[in-house]
Specification:
six-stranded mixed sheet, five-stranded parallel sheet, single chain, alpha/beta, globular
């Protein structure tokens, strides 16, 4: 049933393989799965936000990729309320639900995780944000403007981020501030490697 999508996976580029593995291994404190079964792959292909990432990666491969993404999307819908606009998305992007999410960024690092109802984009200062590697953004968070979210940072659910976030920081609130004493065990484990 998902054979056309399976055949399109290699055409989307090498980052797609890491996207699949991140989808199967969402906790950042565990190593990525070494291999997966056909049943697991079909489960990933059923996930509409993953399909949206796949179509994004295909569109980045040129006119042929754009045509293929459009054709596949007719039969295998992506997440309808998900908008992605970024010139540089690292491998391993994971969208937990993807519903009502807008992602407009200058760059997204590898192994980032974005929850549902998140807005990442422009404000009146111009350029959109840059997200470092292994950044996690909680549900309903808003990240706006020409700012940088450092590697291993965590943006809490409902936070409004309008200033740079240091690497490894956990931020929350409106406007967001670094939560002193807060630690993220997943990112801490990843940094220790």
């Amino acid at each position: 049933m998902y054979l056309p999508l399976r055949l399109a996976l290699p055409l989307a580029g090498p980052a797609t393989e890491r996207d699949i593995r991140r989808q199967l291994q969402p906790r950042l404190d565990l190593p990525l799965v070494a291999s997966y079964t056909t049943e697991q792959l079909v489960g990933v292909l059923r996930h509409r936000p993953f399909r949206s990432i796949l179509y994004y990666r295909l569109r980045c491969r040129g006119i042929g990729g754009r045509a293929l993404a459009r054709a596949l999307a007719v039969f295998y819908k992506g997440e309808p309320a998900l908008f992605i606009s970024c010139d540089d998305i690292g491998p391993g992007l994971m969208l937990l639900h993807g519903f009502a999410t807008i992602i407009t960024a200058r760059k997204i690092g590898m192994d980032c995780q974005v929850s549902q109802q998140v807005t990442i984009g422009y404000d009146d200062r111009g350029a959109p944000p840059i997200l470092g590697n292994r950044v996690r953004i909680g549900a309903n968070a808003v990240v706006l403007g020409p700012i940088t979210i450092g590697d291993d940072a965590v943006v809490g659910a409902g936070a409004v981020v309008i200033r740079d976030v240091p690497a490894g920081a956990v931020v929350g609130g409106v406007p967001a501030r670094v939560l002193e004493g807060a630690t993220d065990r997943f990112s801490a484990a990843r940094r220790a490697e």
